[in-house]
Each structure stands twice: as C-alpha cells, then as structure tokens.
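RETRY 2/3 - previous attempt timed out on the joint model. Re-submitting the same 516-residue input unchanged.
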Amino acid sequence: MTATNKTGSKRKSEPVNAGPAIELVEPTAAPAPEEAPAVEVVPKKKILFVASEAAPFIATGGLAEVIGSLSKALAKNDRYDVRVIVPLYQDIRKEYRKDFRFIGNIFVPLSWRNQYCGIFEYEKDNVTFYFVDNEYYFKRPGCYGYYDDGERFAFFCRSVMEILGFIGFYPDILHCHDWQAALAALYLKTIYCFRPEYQFIRAVFTIHNIEYQGKYSLDILEDLFGISYHYRNLVEYDRCINLMKGAIECCERFSTVSPTYANEIKDPYYAHGLDAIVRRNEFKLCGILNGIDPDYYDPETDTALFANYSAAHPEKKAVCKEELQKMLGLPVKPDTPILAMITRLVSHKGLDLVKEVIEQALRQDMQFILLGTGDSGYENYFTDLARRYQGKVVSIISFNSDLSRKIYAGADLFLMPSKSEPCGLSQMIASRYGTVAIVRETGGLKDSITPYGAGGNGFTFANYDAYDMLYVINEALGVYRIKGEWAKLVKKAMETDFTWSTSAKSYENLYLSILN
Ligand code: GLC
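RETRY 2/3 succeeded.
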C-alpha cells in the first residue's frame, strides 16, 4: 500500500503492529470493494486586493500598511488564496523589484485606447503580489498628484480586470480600496459581469479616507473611463463623476477602517459631501478596525532603535529616550516627559488645537518633538516654535521612517488630536512602543485608545476644543509624575492587542456573508 504525503511523493506504509502470523486463505469470492472515506476538498476562497499602494513595496501612508499587513494576516488561514495587485511605480523599492518575475504582457482597452500592460509577480508571506507595468502611466516619481491621475487609475483598474483572464484567476471577492481602485468594481458591474468567468465575482469596497473621492467632469465618462453613458446614474453625484460614490453603489458590501468612522460618515461633518449616499447604502456598510503588523513594529527586535525592550522588560526604553534627547540636542533629562507628534501637517490632524495651547503646556517641565511635513503654514509655525523654545522643542520638517521609530520608542507621550481620523495607525504603534497616546475621540482613535480614568490604555478628550486637549495633556503629565502608576499605564499600552487577529476574522465574516 502506498500513501501520498504533503509534497505529493509516495512512500510505503509501515505495518503498525506486527501481530501473530496468520495464514492467508484465497478468498472464494471477491470481497465488496471497501469504500474510501469521502474527503471533502474545499476549494480555497480567492481574495484579490486592488489598491494603489502596498507595503513594503511602495508606501505613502496608512493605506499601504493596511494592504501589506491585512493580506498577510488573511493568508495565514490556509482556506484563503490571497493576492494583491498594485501599479508598478518607478519608486517601487529596488531591493524587491529586482526579484519580480515577468509573467507576460497584454493590451488593455480603455475607451478608444489600447495600452500595453506588463505583468510582474512576487510572492511574500504566502501572498501573491502582481504589479501592473506601463511606463507611460507609472514611470514617474511618487504615486499621485498628476493631471492625469484619473486616466492612470482607470488604466490600472481596467488592467486588473483583463489580467484576471490572462492569469486565469477569478476571485470570489474583488476587494477594492479607496477611490483609485473604485473603477475595478465599476468595470466589474458594468462590463465584465456579463462574461461567464466573471459572473460570480463579488465586490467589496473599503474607504480608508472619505475625503478623497476621485471627482471628475461628467463629459469624460465614456471617452476617458470607458463607461457607457447609460451607466451615468451609478457614478454621477453633484453634477460630476464621483468614483467613490460609484463603488459604494455597485459593490455588494462596503466598509471603513473603524466602527466609529463607519458611523461618523453618515454625518455631513465627516462625510465630505457623501453622507446622503452613505446613509442610503447603510444596509451594506460596516466598520472594521485596522491592525498593525506586530512583527514589523516590535520594540524587542526593531533595528532602528537605540536599544530594544519589551512589555516584560521595559528598562531599556530609558536608553532610547536618553539617546533621542542627545541626538536632537535636547537636555538629557530622564524625568522630563517628552510629548511627541508624528504627523502630516494638515488641518484635519488637529494642529490648530496644538497651535492654540502648546505654549501654555510648555510652561511645565516637558519637551516637545514634532516630525512631519505638509502645509507650509504649519511647517513655518513649528519651525518658529522650535526656534523660540530652544532646548525644549524640536521640529523636524521631514518624513523619515528611521527617525519616526526612534521617536516612537524614545518619547513618553504621543499626541493625536485629529478632527477626523478614519483609523490612524500611529497611536497603535506608539502604544506598542510604550509611548502613551493622547487622542481625540474620533474614528479609529476612539476605538483603539480608551481613557486612563476608566482603566484604559491612554488619554482621550471628546470635543474638538483646545482647552479640553490641554486638560488631558495636563492630566497625563500629572500621572507621569506618579512613577508606579505610569509604569502600569505604559505596560497596559504595550500589551494592548493591536494585531489583526480580531479584525482579520471580521473581514472573513464579511466575505462569507456575501459568498454564502
Ligand atoms: C488613511 C486614513 C487613516 C487610516 C489609513 C489606513 O490614511 O486617513 O486614518 O489609518 O488610511 O486605513
């Protein structure tokens, strides 16, 4: 008898127990064939993420991190075949790019155009990544901000649909993220679902930030996006094409990146004009909190840090603080709390609140570090603040991943007073590095940070008000001075579960709710 092992090779089976020898007798009649126990082979569920960026290959923000870490978390479950498709930008990191495998090329119809599309493949952590190559559209610095972004991402989405046929992979779930991938859902529902191979593909659309909707003039619907004018009601909103609206209308389910944000976007204050559409489609909306990759953000192994530490052995966090102070030219004072911000310098990050009261906070014994780039008004303000408060305030106007990790590890408090925040990852990273978060209760900030006073892992305030924020900063500085209490709070922050374990399950349930 032979058995097949996992790798498919055959081996002889060993007798389990050599009992007393028995005499073999020729059977008189052939015995009834034994029925082999039925082994049910359940085909893997096929999930395809369509997104404009994915870590570690190319990242400009939280979207990329979520695509990289959620796909990896889902792929841990061997009932799923998880793949991701992104454009092959010029800035894709070289160390990965050199190992991409070219698997072929096709020509993609986009209205009257017929464009070259090369396809590259790379496998990482059980996830297959595809990269869509077209030098005319993607051989440029950065990912966004070009006059023809609409056409670039229309090409990308149309290519996605064509590539499925080329590689023979028809996903059960086409999971599109943000407006740049919205057209994939629209092409599925207006063009491809009439082809037999595509008819069972179901679409999920995730909003990472409702502020960016992909709005274009209506007259380019056919000519540029290649969508027939009689589908105009799907995408038209406020007298223009709104790609996010189109995806919401035609997907089976849509989601946002935290339960609180899912609620908030029904409200005009948060919805940037789309609240009516969200409310009308509320029956298919859910909010699932993002997680972070615990291997990537691990103070115990992070090589960017001056020293490594963990929740069980946090002692060396003090080394990280001391070295950070030295590096940034701040007086080395182990007992002076460092309040840090790592942020894009744009208004919805709550910077107006900071401007209003930071100087009052600075009257106390504390140091303030800001790292970020953005609107020049804020850049100038924080540069000036650092000049006026030398030895107390440092502003670094740049985006620097290595330095950001040193700050996450070396600071004591992390401030994130956003006006709106779909999820936010920085408060989770800071907490994991033992830097206690102070947040406004909005979106994912509310869902991930709970108030110290109620036994939580950080400090929070509800109203978008500078003095409410100052009040909790002072509260936090007060707790910092009670050493035993502070150590307990740091431990609590570090031990909060920010992994994908719960949220990946929620995505699985979302997929299954459609497929079943
Ligand atoms: C966007 C949101 C941010 C969220 C990220 C990942 O960048 O602004 O809050 O964490 O997407 O979903």
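Residues 1-30 have pLDDT under 50 and may be disordered. Closing ticket.
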